[in-house]
Design brief:
GO terms for molecular function: catalytic activity. This is Amidase. Belongs to the amidase family. There is one protein chain. This protein is α/β, with parallel strands linked by helices. It contains 15 helices and 15 strands. It has one domain: Amidase signature (AS) enzymes. 36% of the residues lie in helices and 14% in strands. The strands form three sheets. An eleven-stranded mixed sheet has the order 1-3-2-6-8-7-14-15-11-9-10, sandwiched between helices. Strands 4-5 form a two-stranded antiparallel ribbon. Strands 12-13 form a two-stranded antiparallel sheet. Helix 3 packs antiparallel against helix 4, helix 6 packs parallel to helix 7 and helix 10 crosses helix 12. The two termini are 29 Å apart. The mean pLDDT is 96.
Length: 488
């Protein structure tokens, strides 16, 4: 299989698997391209992309050689192969690898070692995926920027002054830079979708429980683990491998390995689909470039035969922030505080998160927070009653600073907001966490950073969001991956 170095490093998994099976490409060639790309462009923790916490390149190459042998045998004997056999996968650091460190960016966890694989890691390995690296996060995955004293600053390959987003920032940066083919992520307020949008990649927040997690925090109904990739088809592939009931997670459900089917002609399949359009999900401010990219996607969908219906939601920024921080104040913030060994040891953004969440929990009981959740869920269901899915921006801004803490809030479209999480239109769908949501690219801003659009489905209707996302991908001009200067 021919192609330049960068083209092979950015090759999608579906195409690679097809080439593996036809023996046009070896898993060793793909892994070597990805590893070489990482060596060329990842750089250091101060000024580079810095997307990895740990790498296993030698072990991965041995696995790739075994995969190549397996493909030769399968071609000779006409045998099927495992669904991810030979594909490089970078895992988010919080996803345990047995016998490897599990630190989550916390000084109190330095040197801690995982006893067992996370369920998604277990399934990726069983499916033949090759885990060659682990990706950076902010401390305990509680920010939408990715930097920490432990791992340094992770930067966006599209614009090194900006963040790839968070908390799965290392995953998005590695995908955009061609340093992995697939990646794992997680999402409790947008931690998959925010970096997907900022890096021009695809991120999926599955319905709660569809992809298993680890207790006790797997019981948090806002959270979920999931896939990131460079295409909708690759994201569907990894989601199908990760999904399904698992004994470690009592909330997990559904069949294991069930394929998410995409239509052969996603644009043709779009005809007659009713899609709701909300540019602000109520009163979220949205920067003009983001709004223009979202309107452009909606126009393309309408021209292709979809029925685009403007939707109004009664949500306010204050309502959303009150709802999510009451929830975090009773679950996530106490977990971060306990695991960190003391708030004073944390990065400023983590200290700010805990302080805000603690105050919210003091004002609102857990029981009352359930009522806040239910109100937003009811309002979303009413707004979507006459449509098949909803589209809206992923992020309200075109970028965040790579090193920013945003302790004093953020200015968005001429308005000041007390908390920088209001720069993302993602957390309402963690409140409504039975809804599947995909973030797919919608364009690129003048600062060089991509923009993204969310496709939100009715509870548990995964096929619909993937079908619409595939159509958006086919209708939206693909921006070329960033040209990166090799590091010394």
């Amino acid at each position: 299989m021919t192609g330049s170095h960068g083209e092979l490093a950015h090759l999608d998994a579906v195409t690679a698997l097809r080439a593996f099976r036809s023996l046009e490409l070896s898993p060793v060639e793909l892994l070597d391209a990805v590893v070489d790309q990482a060596g060329r462009v990842n750089g250091d923790r101060e000024t580079g992309i810095n997307a990895f916490t740990e790498t296993f390149f030698d072990e991965a190459r041995a696995e790739a050689e075994r995969a190549a042998t397996a493909y030769l045998r399968a071609a000779r004997d006409e045998e099927p192969t495992a669904p991810l056999l030979g594909i490089p996968v970078a895992t988010k650091e919080k996803h345990n690898l047995a016998g490897r460190r599990i630190e989550q960016g916390l000084a109190a966890h330095a040197g801690r070692v995982a006893a067992e694989d996370h369920p998604v890691v277990e399934r990726i390995r069983r499916a033949g995926g090759i885990i060659h690296a682990r990706t950076t996060t902010p401390e305990f995955s509680c920010a939408t920027v990715t930097h920490s004293p432990m791992w340094g600053v992770t930067r966006n390959p599209w614009n090194l002054a900006t963040t790839p987003g968070g908390s799965s920032g290392g995953a998005g940066a590695a995908l955009a830079a061609g340093m992995t083919t697939l990646a794992t992520a997680s999402d409790i307020a947008g931690s998959t979708r925010v970096p997907a949008a900022f890096t021009g990649t695809v991120g999926y927040k599955a319905p709660y429980g569809r992809i298993p997690g680890l207790p006790p925090l797997s019981a948090d109904w806002y959270r979920g683990d999931g896939p990131m990739a460079r295409t909708v088809a690759d994201t569907a592939l990894l989601a199908s491998v990760m999904s399904g009931q698992h004994p470690a997670d009592h909330a997990s459900w559904g069949p294991q390995g069930a394929a998410i089917e995409l239509p052969e002609d996603p644009v043709g399949a779009l005809r007659g689909t009713r899609i709701g359009l909300s540019l602000r999900l109520g009163d979220f401010p949205v920067e003009p470039e983001v709004e223009a990219a979202t309107v452009d996607v909606a126009t393309r969908l309408e021209r292709a035969g979809a029925v685009v219906v403007p939707l109004d939601l009664p949500w306010t920024g204050d309502q959303v922030m009150r709802t999510i921080f009451a929830h975090f104040g009773h679950i996530l913030a106490p977990a971060v505080e306990r695991e960190s060994g003391g708030v004073e040891t944390l990065a400023p953004y983590a200290q700010r998160f805990i302080a805000d969440a603690r105050r919210a929990a003091e004002r609102t009981s857990l029981l009352d927070s359930l009522a806040l959740d239910a109100a937003m869920q009811r309002e979303l269901a009413a707004a979507m009653a006459e449509v098949d899915a909803l589209i809206c921006p992923t992020n309200a801004v075109t970028a965040l600073s790579a090193e920013g803490d945003y302790l004093n809030g953020i200015d968005i479209a001429g308005q000041h907001h007390d908390h920088y999480w209001q720069a993302h239109l993602t957390s309402p769908f963690n409140v409504a966490n039975r809804c599947p949501v995909l973030s797919v690219p919608s364009g690129k801003a003048e600062n060089g950073v991509p923009t993204g659009i969310q496709v939100v489905g009715h509870p548990h209707e995964e096929q619909q969001v993937f079908r619409i996302a595939a159509a958006i991908e086919a209708l939206t001009p693909r921006i070329q991956w960033p040209t990166l200067t090799p590091t010394a």
